[in-house]
Amino acid sequence: MFSDISITWLFVVFAIAGTVVVLASIRATGLADVIADRTRMGEAMAGGIVLGAATSLAGVVVSVDAALSGDASYAFSNAVGGIAAQTLFLAIADMLHKRANLEHAAAEPANLFQSVMLIILLSLPICAVSGPDIAYFGIHPVSVVLFLAYLYGVRLSTTVRENPMWRPVRTSDTRRDEPEDGDEPDRPVAGIAIQFAVLVAFMGAGGWVISQVGGQFIERFSLSSSLVGSLITAVVTSLPEFVTTLVAVRRGALQLAIGGIIGGNTFDTLFLVAGDVAFREGSIYHAIDPNDLYWLGTGLMMTAILLAGLILRQREGPARIGIESVLMILVYLTALTVEVTG
């Protein structure tokens, strides 16, 4: 569809698609906060499940489209590169939250549990890559396990939210998850949900366009699929998470900000499941490049650092941000240097 247009228009289309995805995500953040209040779901769960899945839709469209075209590296790197980029966004948001370290202020058991769940889910593809090259109906068994583990993890996350077995120590900098003033929790949510669904549709359409243009970048500029997937399409399709995180922090919905990133990353692991199903040449895990696995390790490391920060709850660190944010930035920059120069 985009093979006949000029390079200039290719960049224009790419920019327009990215803008549509970002603008839709800005509006979706506010709606997700309202949904959290009216359904009594809570910001952490709404961020992790509702907002996280919605803002990840553009990315999953990219991975599925790439897998259908037979480019396993593009599909895989888009997923794992997005996880690393989105975790980096939390470090940037930490810089903008002036009162205290973001991970300290947004203390929430559900976010801790989802971080643990994300580490488990990211470990499964490593087992698949290092294990035997098997596939049934073109699908590796680990993809089935990953999908089931995600569903079970979401169920347990709800239990942690509704019946926590422990609570974080409250300090003067801890932001409580409370409904916004003037928003009645029992008001109907159907109209808000419909608006949210329309925005999700726009994000999905934008993701498809981004995928097609990314494929043209690989072909016309002779770029590696790993480079385009991890640093171009992954970052662009992750911009909704960046914008929604900044908007949520500005609104004071700190649990929504962190929950949206962690939940979005958790949902992003399903890109690998969808990509494996769409990739018809066998197991996607055994058709990727070594650089793709490197980005998977980077996302795993950054998630572990984030989890440590959520447990440590340091109020202030270097440059008024937590030490975990400093480490996440350094890890990402290292991975970026390796990808570009490798």
From TrEMBL:
Topology class, membrane: Multi-pass membrane protein
Keyword Transferase in annotation: no
Protein name stated in the entry: Sodium/calcium exchanger membrane region
Alphabetically ordered keywords of this record: Membrane, Transmembrane, Transmembrane helix
Protein's UniProt keywords contain Membrane: yes
GO biological process: transmembrane transport
Compartments, as annotated in UniProt: Membrane
Transmembrane segments: 6-26, 46-68, 74-92, 112-131, 137-157, 189-210, 230-249, 256-274, 294-312, 319-338
Gene source species: Roseivivax marinus
Chief subcellular location: membrane
GO CC terms of this entry: membrane
Domain Sodium/calcium exchanger membrane region: 9-90, 196-337
Span list, region Disordered: 168-187
Domain of life: Bacteria
